[in-house]
Amino acid sequence: MERGETQNIEYKQAWRDEYLKWICGFANAKGGHIYIGIDDNGNIIGVDNHKKLMEDIPNKSVNHLGVVVDVNLHAAEGKNYLEIIVPISNVPIAYHGVYHYRSGSTKQELKGIALQNLLLNKMGKKWEDMAVEGITFSDLNGNSIQKFIIKAIEKDRIPPNTLKIGKQTLFKNLGLLTEKGQLTNAAVLLFGKNLIKVSVTASFKIGRFGKSSHDLLFQDIVETNIFEMADKVIEILKTKYLVRPISYKGLERMEPLEYPETALREAILNAIIHKDYSSTYTFLRVYDDRLLLWNPGTLPEELTIDKLKQEHSSYPRNRNIANAFFKAGYIESWGRGINKIIDACKEAGLPEPIIEEDQGGVSVIFLKDIYTEEILKTYNLESRHIKALLFIKENGRINNKQYQALFEISKRMVSYDLQMLVDRNFITKIGSTGKGTYYILQRGNKGVK
Question: Which segments constitute the Schlafen AlbA-2 domain (predicted)?
Fold first, then answer.
């Protein structure tokens, strides 16, 4: 049987009492199995004192952690090894005053915000549901609330008579009030006049950079409530950060953004909705050749980056915040956001955005240019074709003679290569026949195959 450490499995060659920390970590997370007598590579080393350990480990787990574990004896390859089965704990577990948590294949010591979130989760609560002391409806933006109601009625997601009912009833129906009628963190984030009362890092930071991340040219901070935030961010991007290449469709002048607005808006909304608001800021970094959006908060355990691109259920970190955006028609609740971003970029002739987990958050990188070696390799091209496209990118054009000299291949093979690149919409042929014919990159093309 193939073995390997995973989210729920840990191997140890021999027992040490300090491994009670791992039992603590598994109990605070999703439970798991700890095998004693197996090395990190899954090789069975065996244990000699298994009878004593089968008695000691359960006792120490109860005495030090209050966790009841099962310890089972197994044998393979003529050697004995132990399996410790750790259940999920419904209450937070500490070992000598320190809270541990199993994440991926590592164990973490929880402190600060991470510990606060663990304690809330074990109590069946989320940060967005916590009451904000001293806040009343007068601290909320009435125009934002009115805008939400109108949009939600237009989308037929709240009753038409909502304009007539009181804010208390509306917010209760949206899950934005506690049982005692207090406004929650989510309510203030969505519609508050001053978000610093619930989160000093609720702002959205935008920066324009030069060649590197150290070369900050100018920046903006968007500090509005999060219901208005996406519109404000898009407005600033349009007026200050992004260009509008001019083209014509017949006589009609076309001025789309250099990145498709629908994709940008969807990504920005995702960042706002799924952000961990007990953590740091959301950052949008604009470079000459790319745009990088990062928000704090890892993916839920049910999802991976690959699963995001497939049909999947939605697992919002902030369910009441997500529900408000859904009611207003800003998002759908079917987990299609990432595919909408990818499809919009492809339709605009741009590469598929790079989506990855990074530094405790999720980043989406929008790229302008498909004509990079990294991107071109994804199109199943031969190395010769990639080198030819990069040659055109650097020199502006290529003709049959140059292509033939570049790779020392026959004129017939050159013609085949160039026609293939034309057919796949990577390049455009200028001229019909003869020495004056040359080829250029087909920029902004929507049909690269």
Answer: 5-110
CA distance 120 to 108: 18
- Helix (DSSP H) and strand (DSSP E) numbers for the chain: 15, 17
Please give the Cα distance from 161 to 181 (Å, whole number): 22
CATH code for the domain defined by 126-368: 3.30.565.60
Three-class secondary structure of residue 399 per DSSP: coil
The pTM for the full model equals 0.72
Domain boundaries, the chain: 9-124, 126-368, 373-441
Chain length of the chain: 449
User: Domain 9-124, CATH 3.30.950.30 — does that match?
Assistant: yes
Q: What CATH number labels 373-441? A: 1.10.10.10
Angle at which helix 383-395 crosses helix 400-407, to 10 degrees, equals 130
